[in-house]
Amino acid sequence: SLVDADMNVASTRLQALQTQQQLGIQALSMANQNSQLILKLFNG
Fold it and tell me: In this structure, what DSSP letter does residue 21 have?
């Protein structure tokens, strides 16, 4: 049962890390889109 508990903890941590990674990628994508819009405004 200790192994099962350790696996559950590891699985939960992995899911949390994957979620953080997805949110980070989304944030970078949004920032990139915003900068492209600003460049379009300046360039006409």
Answer: H
> Which token pair is 24?
């980070």
Confidence band, pLDDT 50/70/90 cuts, at residue 2: confident
DSSP code of 1?
-
Distance (Å, whole) CA 39 – CA 44: 8
What's the rounded Cα separation, in Å, for the pair 1 and 38? 55
Tens of pLDDT, residue by residue over 9-25, are 999 999 999 999 999 99
Torsion of CA 26, 30, 33, 35, to 10 degrees: -130
